[in-house]
Design goal:
This protein is mostly beta strands and 128 residues long. Helix content is 7%, strand content 38%. The N and C termini lie far apart (33 Å).
Amino acid sequence: MAEFTVAVSDPEDGHTYQIDVDGQDANRFIGRELGDEVDGSAVGLDGYTLELTGGTDAAGRPMRSDLRGTGTEEILTDGGVGFNPTRDGERKRITVRGREVSDQTRQINARIADRGGDAVADLLGDDE
């Protein structure tokens, strides 16, 4: 059974909410790719739509949108997701995960694409 932590960012107010998802709600994310939209009811945001923007697996390997599938791959990169060069021309071989969400994924990053009627803080029970 898949279990995820979904980090939902709200672009309007800049807050990020972390929600633990398991069971049937977690299955809504399996097989989706970065850039896909998911119904927000999976994380308690009824009427909202979430866009998947990134994630990591249990070892901390980042997901990259330019790699197909769910597996890991070693790539030689000069920047982007997983590596930030410190000088011009610097490259590094890193291990990254593909763009498809699988049961190996532990954290999923998402942003609110379409808003519902209620406030995000009210739906997620934010005490601020």
